[in-house]
Amino acid sequence: MFRLEVRTSTPTWFNLALPLLAIAATLVLCSGLIALAGAGILESYGVMFTASLGDSYAITETLVRAAPMIFTGLAVAVAFRAKFWNIGAEGQLLAGAVASCFVGAIPMPGALAMLLMAIAGAAAGAAVALAPATLRVKFKVDDVVSSLLLNSVIYYALMALIEGPWKDSFSGYPISPPIEDSANFPVLIEGTRLHLGVIVALIAAPLIWFLIARTTLGFRIRVTGENPEAARYGGIHVERVLLSTALLSGALAGLAGVGEVGGVHFQVMSDISPGYGYSGIVVAMLARLNPLGVVPAAIFLAAVMTGAEAMSRATGVPAFLSDVIQGTALLAMLVALLFTAYRIRRVGVAT
Amino acid sequence: MSAPLIEMRGITKSFGAVKANEAVDLSVAPGEILGLLGENGAGKTTLMNVLFGAYAPDAGEILVQGQPVRITSSADALAAGIGMVHQHFHLAPRLTVLENLLIGIPGKGGRIDRAGGLARLAEIGRQHGLTLDPDLPVSALSVGEQQRLEIVKALFRGARLLILDEPTAVLAPSEVDRLFSALRSMAAQGLGIIFISHKLNEVRALTHRCTVLRHGRVAGRVDDPANTTSAAMAQLMCGHEIVPPARGPSTPGEAVLTLDGISTSNHAGTVLRGVSLAVRSGEILGIAGVSGNGQRALAEVISGVRSPDAGRMTIAGQTVSRFSPREVQALGLGRIPEDRMTTGLVTNLPLADSMVLPRIGTAAFSSKGLLKPDAIRTFAEEQIKAYDIRCPGPMTRAGALSGGNLQKALLARELAFDPKVLIVSQPTRGLDIGAARFIHEKFLDMRAKGCGIIVIGEDLEELLVLCDRIAVMYEGRIVGTLDSADATIARLGLLMTGAEGRA
């Protein structure tokens, strides 16, 4: 018989190994589904790997997909550190996309356009995140529910926009007008889609790490998240910290939308995000809310997404497996986190 | 004497390299109240967790009425007739008293046996004076009543041995009396009781026998606690003699903190009604009173987390205008909180973070919004050394430290900045004798250096030892202030009950 016992301390290697264990468990669990679909397990995972990380072009594609999830992962990690439960990165991303598309369609010099797109997108995302944070600070409204529901509000507002004023009058498709060519983010490697926004995302991670670990704002975010009462007695304005965190978190999620508009789609359509905002939660949890861990976690999920499509074409296993892997990875990580606080102990069998 | 109700033989339990318990023997006979003594970290809690099934021992056995049993969960412990009242209660606040009692009790034919529960509750109440209103939600109960409910819950489940972990730490003196008479009544009916406490006068008044633990082993047993001196028991616990600190004559100077007509209210009504007091430099002022008479609000106002509705406060001659923690701290106020875990420390973060928390925005620990990690670390390391805080280092999770070491850390973080006034609440609650002694000495040192100190406390003996003057609060007012030379427990006790008149 086994039972859980409280740990007095957690070894460092264990903390590092945890996400890897969770991912390994996920792949084992999901291999059952591959077998059920009648494909070879190793073959399918092999195709997934080759298609996502097997050659340099595949790697750039994976990085392009990872970029928005790095931003939403950072957004969620920062928010969760302060225990501001921002489930609204998806809506904040969409708001950022709409705002940057709006700015990008205005003719102006390219560099200025890109800068203003980023500012507008970040501001739009921050504004959306401010709503649930204000409701929580002023009226104690549950931020999980309000930030989650706001996603639908933003999504349908976006739909109203592209079905209405932005609708392409020529083709009749529900898509926004494209941004100016000069506002398209420069491609870094000829023949790939690796755009400037990917580099910005990769730089953002260490910057956010620095902010959390080395600045007074980061200190206040950490303390507020872990013990708001002690923070208040220690002279920290808890409400102000929560609102600042929401602004930062929303701005990061908004930047995910900016990258998708400026670097990938150059316009806004209804499926501009395949749920990058929600994937950000998985990314942040796999990274254990560490901004540096967000990068590998986002690349893992991006690899699963790109790989799943290739696997589907090659083996006939539905690409929905990618969603199952994401969900399973989140659950596996949550279970794995239990073992940082508890250990399994074997108890002698009763005679 | 009859066969022991419960017997633990040779219990050994290690955590890594630390032996929390080593070959511990302990027994309780029916009708016996056993005191379990020991300093923090001596292994009392581990031993009781082994008995209650939370930990599996590495070696040793447990016998219930002479029969060896294997206890691997709290369910096993309950089945063996062992009930435990933890320091932190395990109650569902939104459910009523009766509902809390019936949780986990099989009903009749899938329905909750309300009538049966009510009858049992009334019976237990009659037998031991443990009366409770069955229909009140737990959130409406006082701390003492919640504890009563925990005891009733254990009896309800047929416990024949009851373990109480520092039950009096949360109680007012009158509630302690009531608890003791209930425990005596239970013992008279043949129940066994294990009573864990740091307060030796209580142990001497209540228990029939004591087992003393030190460094995980049995350091000694006391067969006649009532006729053993507290000093002798303290010596068994610590391994050396403990001398109470001597408070020399004081030479109070200027007033460093004054309150003039401070009133506050919350949704429940007025909590402070025109409180005026003054603390001079080099003086320790005690605030006595039964808990819930406005002491917490007083501490909150002085700490700057609550703004008064009326009145004026000065620190070192300066009028406090905005009542924020940062303002009062900048004027020279230091604060040791009543509840270390909730308003003092951040248990999940490194100890160093908690030690710099109130001053993180000052030049000592940051500049231009950037932390100074080296300064933070050095400060924490210096204080850990200066205060002999037992921990692996400044990056240890604060929650991993014992209560005494946490209290030292909180003391260090305030005293390092030479406060002009120090406000402390329940400074030694839950601490063992050695740690309490250390804290008291520090207060007296600060007093000698000219700091004015306010000690809010319920332990009158502690206040009498420590304070120059003692003010008594009742229903949000100060009803009397005594020089400690004239104060006795009886006179303070009378004032605490609200008896008017000049004392």
TrEMBL record, chain A:
<dbReference type="InterPro" id="IPR001851">
    <property type="entry name" value="ABC_transp_permease"/>
</dbReference>
<keyword id="KW-1003">Cell membrane</keyword>
<keyword id="KW-1133">Transmembrane helix</keyword>
<protein>
    <submittedName>
        <fullName>ABC transporter permease</fullName>
    </submittedName>
</protein>
<keyword id="KW-0812">Transmembrane</keyword>
<dbReference type="Pfam" id="PF02653">
    <property type="entry name" value="BPD_transp_2"/>
</dbReference>
<dbReference type="GO" id="GO:0022857">
    <property type="term" value="F:transmembrane transporter activity"/>
</dbReference>
<keyword id="KW-0472">Membrane</keyword>
<dbReference type="GO" id="GO:0005886">
    <property type="term" value="C:plasma membrane"/>
</dbReference>
From TrEMBL, chain B:
<dbReference type="GO" id="GO:0005524">
    <property type="term" value="F:ATP binding"/>
</dbReference>
<dbReference type="InterPro" id="IPR050107">
    <property type="entry name" value="ABC_carbohydrate_import_ATPase"/>
</dbReference>
<dbReference type="InterPro" id="IPR003593">
    <property type="entry name" value="AAA+_ATPase"/>
</dbReference>
<keyword id="KW-0067">ATP-binding</keyword>
<protein>
    <submittedName>
        <fullName>ABC transporter ATP-binding protein</fullName>
    </submittedName>
</protein>
<dbReference type="InterPro" id="IPR003439">
    <property type="entry name" value="ABC_transporter-like_ATP-bd"/>
</dbReference>
<dbReference type="InterPro" id="IPR017871">
    <property type="entry name" value="ABC_transporter-like_CS"/>
</dbReference>
<comment type="similarity">
    <text>Belongs to the ABC transporter superfamily.</text>
</comment>
<keyword id="KW-0547">Nucleotide-binding</keyword>
<dbReference type="InterPro" id="IPR027417">
    <property type="entry name" value="P-loop_NTPase"/>
</dbReference>
<dbReference type="GO" id="GO:0016887">
    <property type="term" value="F:ATP hydrolysis activity"/>
</dbReference>
<dbReference type="Pfam" id="PF00005">
    <property type="entry name" value="ABC_tran"/>
</dbReference>
